[in-house]
Write a structure and sequence with these properties.
It is a single chain. This protein has 16 helices and 31 strands. It is α/β, with parallel strands linked by helices. The chain has two domains: 353 residues, 4-Layer Sandwich (Purple Acid Phosphatase, chain A, domain 2); 224 residues, Alpha-Beta Complex (5'-nucleotidase,  domain 2). It has a seven-stranded mixed beta sheet. Helix 4 runs parallel beside helix 5, helix 11 crosses helix 16 and helix 12 packs across helix 16. The longest helix is centred in the middle third of the chain and has 18 residues. The N terminus is likely disordered.
Length: 623
Amino acid sequence: MFPSSTRCPATTAVFLLVLVLSACRTALPPPAEPAAGVEIHVAHINDHHSNLDAHANFELVIDGTPTRVSAGGFPRLTALFRETSGQPNTIRLHAGDAMTGTLYHTLYKGEADAALMNTVCFDAFELGNHEFDEGDAGLRVFLDHLKRGPCQTTVVAANVQPAIGSPLAPRAGDDYLKPYLLKPVGGTTFAVIGIEVRDKTMNSSRPLPTTAFADEVATAQRMTDEVRAQGVRHIILLTHHGYDADQAMAAQLSDVDVIIGGDSHSLLGGFPAVGITASSGPYPTIVRNRDGDPVCIGQAWEYAKVFARMKVRFDDQARVVDCSGEVILPIGDDFRRQDATGEFVAVDAATRSRILDRLNHQTGVRVVEADPLAAGELARFSSKLDKLKQQRIGSASEALCLVRVPGESTNRSSGIAGCERANTLAHGSDVAQAVAEAYRQASRLADVALLNSGGVRTGVPAGEITFNTANTVLPYTNVLYELRLTGAQLVEAIDDGVANHLDYGRSDGSHPYAAGLRWHLDMSRPRGSRFSQVEVKVKGSELWQPIDPQKTYTLVTSDYLATGSDGYATLARINAAGQSVNTYLLYTQTFVDYLQAHGTLTRPGTGDYSHQSVITRDGTRLP
């Protein structure tokens, strides 16, 4: 049941509108609470980013031997969600970023994602920042597809308020977005309150200027107080806010019991027994709220790889007694290992039996058969993609690993052979460096190419590269801009990208990578002194020279950065002053052209990486 609302007059003051709508909601009668406590199961995923197919050639280490499998994929997740249908008191949640990341989004604009989500029937879906990548109108297209299905999933985002008359609020503020879901479970009522990451969405996506985003913590407490006033005593926050931010928020709130989150792509628990060692914390993570009561926090990694299920037990005073759970990596039963020639081939029957026996005695990794309904839905969309996806455009002689910030704790290239230590090395992202080189090649004028690490979405395994690979690496619709700026402004721009995540706590996807520009970076120092020994290789020269603060250079970058997103305020000022040109070159196509021109993609030479040395925030010098 949803909170009912009366129609309130529209107002041009958007934040005032939030308060008016809140005040106009009619309180529900207090639900009856059971005499004894209740136990619930929360099944959840997040950040699937249009990854609907299984991940082929996903590498595990079983009995010390690299073993490739098919992992995840939405039909396997649907099968695991269906297992919960016979389990009483289950709530099914998606913590956002359903869209953007593969050709399914590029060609279907959310229709394919909605169809697969409707094979699960989530009780609630929280908006992610990438839901706004194509503006409020693009988000509405996706939500309309979701609404046409049989599930009628509630979309929650308490701190997002679209203006009346805009695509997400054609008639009323809650036409598409609800602040919370009130769900009867086990004889009582649970509130599921949606919280969207504020600054990241405003600065790193494309919502309308009239769409208001309120503070996450203040909104969470205000909505908690509102539902408590209606007699609801069990509170779940469904957030797209990040694992660290969720923990910090929990400590500032009263009466919150559970936080199911997304955004940071955090793997909790993990699978060390099969060689996946990257883990951001335990599953579930238990912290204390402002009242000193436990809060159970969960997140389920990324890209439809895993399914998470949390069990939470409450006492008769509606306090959390304990919580436990599991994160499951669903895989297929086709196991491949290297033969004498180094090729990965299917194992023999005896080896397959041993592998299955080993997995049966380990927690977390399970052979799961794809749900037939979900597989059928996926086939409707995938059949149209197959020809385009299979078109070969080049190859990689070695893996190009994905790293946002050198030294980061999460290995974003888990499962790609050759990338096991990528996040610990000073040079950072191989694939971002390659994309920067592609930008620079595409421009006839640019001395320097610059990109944000979050614009590159996946690493590239060694082997054949297809059109699908390029569109998965660069899944957005950005075009390239050329800007004229001084050396001093260029250094200020890369300083903007680091300050965005170090100083302002926003997305670390702003971290800069460049071609034709290299530096030494010390993140333990304050802004203005982090970059040293900055050198540039001007167009037509193969020599690195110290950057001249007074000299004018030409920079090529995406329209996303040129217009100031991800904190690149210096570039925004230059663009606003008319010192830029839209090349109308689609950035994904520049990567395709680069691959086709070179044939075989290799890692850059040591001297061509933008990061020549890195000291982390805590003062550690990376190798």
